[in-house]
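Sorry to interrupt, but I need a hand with the structure work. Can you supply me with one protein entry, sequence and fold together? No commentary is needed, just the two lines. Leave the record below and I will have a look.
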Amino acid sequence: MRISERFFRIPVLEPKDWEAGGDGDSINMGKLHSVEFLLAFGAITGDAVLKFYVGATAGTKTTAVAFNYRLSTVDYGTTSADVFGTVTANASTGLTLTAATYDHRLLSIEFDSQAIPDATPFLTLELSAAASVLLTSCTATGSGREKANVPATSVI
């Protein structure tokens, strides 16, 4: 079976300058076993805050949730740019994306569906930006509950 048939590929944030902040598409965790958000950063000037929320419907941000993340160890175009650091716990208050640490890096954040309450299955990424430049995109990869050559959507 092809990788594209085994996993959901979920566009969350289109590649652009998110300096004003914004929300990614909500993902219905009731349709997935787990999901990995992969954020690719370009230039960052200033700081931004990354949070995740759960809610009962798409786009509803009822409760901020804690998460674990891994950051690539070096910038793009450098040997070992595909190597990630250790898993780091982060509180529900969010992760501050400082330019000196996150620009030109990959950030991986994973959630298991059993950690998401059944009453609030929609998971939404939020960027609150104070940056004057925040070039990023996000694609999530989900492990679906149902296997099919063309899986049903998990984005509403």
Q: What stands out?
A: The CA atoms of residues 5 and 148 lie 6 Å apart.
